[in-house]
Amino acid sequence: MDHMEIARKGEIAAEELLIDSGFQILERNWYHKHKELDIIAIDGSELVIIEVKSRKAPALDNPAMSIDRKKQRNLVFAANAYVRMNKISSEIRFDVMWVIYHGSQVEIEHIRNAFVPGL
């Protein structure tokens, strides 16, 4: 699998897990001014922005660590645009899902509240 195929399959696996966990998926791969939100969902009363990071094992880095301050600012910028465009007033949470492929086996870790905007 090449990088793009791993990323695409990882987003699908993450979305399936979210649906199985009761999330309502609103959007996948939503763009605003070249900024992408991988998955936008509802969890209870919260709007959840989910960044999905996928790797093939052995993953030498923790994919969640690639969510640096610049990436966080881009996610917040796009999320704010989505909220304004859709007139959303609910609480917003930023999660990260880490998808690791071990051959045909898939390991998924869901990190809720992965970061808090502005901190």
Question: Could you explain the architecture of this structure?
Answer:
The chain is α+β, with helices and mostly antiparallel strands and 119 residues long. The mean pLDDT is 90. It is built from two helices and five strands. Helix 2 links the parallel strand 3 and strand 4. It has a five-stranded mixed sheet. It has one domain: Trna Endonuclease, Chain: A, domain 1, CATH 3.40.1350.
Can you lay out the helices and strands and say which pair or pack?
Blueprint: H1 3-20, E1 24-32, E2 35-43, E3 46-56, H2 69-86, E4 92-102, E5 105-111
Question: Nutshell version of this structure?
Answer:
With 119 residues, the protein is of the alpha+beta class. Helix content is 30%, strand content 39%. It has one domain: Trna Endonuclease, Chain: A, domain 1, CATH 3.40.1350.10.
Q: Structural class, from secondary structure content?
A: alpha+beta
State the share of residues found in helices, binned by percent: 25-40%
Q: Estimate the global geometry from the Cα principal axes.
A: globular
Task: Find the CATH topology.
Answer: Trna Endonuclease, Chain: A, domain 1
What does the radius of gyration come to? 14 Å
- How many β-strands, per DSSP? 5
The fraction of residues in strands falls at 35-45%
Major sheet details: 5 strands, mixed
The CATH first-level class comes to Alpha Beta
Residue runs with pLDDT of under 50 for 5 or more positions:
none
Report how far the terminal alpha carbons are from each other.
36 Å
Report the order of strands and helices.
HEEEHEE
CATH architecture label name = 3-Layer(aba) Sandwich
